Amino acid sequence: MFSRRPDATLVTDIPMMRRFLPYVSPRRNDSLFYMMQEIEVEAALEFLAKKNADRPPDRPITLFHLFLRAVSQAMHLRPGVNRFVKARQLWQRDGVWLTFSAKKEIKDGSPMLTIKNRFHPTTETLEEMVDAIYDKLRFSRSGKKTTSDKEMGLALRLPGFAITFVMALLGWLDDRGLMPRSMIDGDPLFASAFLANLGSIDYPAGFHHLWEYGTVSIFGVMGRIEPGANGGRKIMVAWTYDERIEDGLYSYHTLEGIRKRIQDPDQLVTTSGEPV
């Protein structure tokens, strides 16, 4: 019935069973698939040491940056995972948008910052991507409020029943493709994937739920660096995935592509995203 959205295009050339799945499992959290992935990082750490020798000391490229780069390339090359279900229809997202979280300071009680960024893996270099992320982090850590912060602050001035009504209204508008693009672009829960780095606080990877609000279909949690086989080092990544957007084989090959890129980080330098 509603075949247009400001942030996506309706997917129609899909098998009958995939079109029917949102009616069998209308809620995102009724449709979750969990996968733990092991990634060897010895080559990636050597790559980072060489790259950072020529970088400003306050702007090093990190393992999490390589993870973001690999995910953005995978989303571009395999667009079937850059989809979401809304109003029981499957939508192809416009562009690669990744949301990730970071602590304002590494200490108890420090607020969590949520950063949403559009990635351009075919036109921006790895270094340009990293610098753009540092610029966004600097803005967020400066205490300046984003559009999303201002909207939440305004909403929280309302009584609880009014907030519930506003959220229901936003959901109604979103289901009908009537939410303004300006709100969608500023909202961190309207993204291709939500990624977190528990390794930054020396924690192992763990699974995370998805939200019914918004359009995030994939959540990836990167854990700490651990001893691997043959004296090397590894990380674990915990993936939570909405199975309604693509079949298991397609999704598996996408995640394998992410793993292979991190294990062979020269592939992350190219702007084509294709294997070098």
Characteristic key phrases:
single chain, about 280 residues, alpha+beta, Chloramphenicol Acetyltransferase, seven-stranded mixed beta sheet, 8 helices, 10 strands, about 35% helix, globular
Give the structure's gist in a few sentences.
With 276 residues, this protein is an alpha+beta fold. The chain contains eight helices and ten strands. The longest helix has 16 residues.
Q: What does this entry look like structurally?
A:
The chain is an alpha+beta fold and 276 residues long. It has one domain (35-143, 180-268): Chloramphenicol Acetyltransferase (2-Layer Sandwich), CATH 3.30.559.10. The protein contains eight helices and ten strands. It has helices at 16-24, 42-52, 63-77, 126-141, 147-155, 160-175, 181-186, 248-263, and strands at residues 8-10, 32-40, 83-86, 89-93, 96-103, 112-119, 193-197, 218-222, 226-227, 233-242. Strands 2, 5, 6, 7, 8, 9 and 10 form a seven-stranded mixed sheet that branches.
How large is the radius of gyration?
19 Å
- The level 1 CATH classification is Alpha Beta
Name the average pLDDT.
Answer: 90
- The CATH topology comes to Chloramphenicol Acetyltransferase
Strand content: 15-25%
SSE arrangement, N to C? EHEHHEEEEHHHHEEEEH
**Class computed from helices, strands and strand pairing:** alpha+beta
How many strands in all? 10
* Percent helix range: 25-40%
Shape: globular
Q: Number of helix segments?
A: 8
Euclidean distance between termini CA atoms: 44 Å
**How many domains make up the coordinates?**
1
Which architecture would the CATH scheme give at its second level?
Answer: 2-Layer Sandwich
Could you give a short account of the major beta sheet? 7 strands, mixed
Tell me the name of the CATH homologous superfamily. Chloramphenicol acetyltransferase-like domain
Segments where pLDDT lies below 50 for 5+ residues?
Answer: none
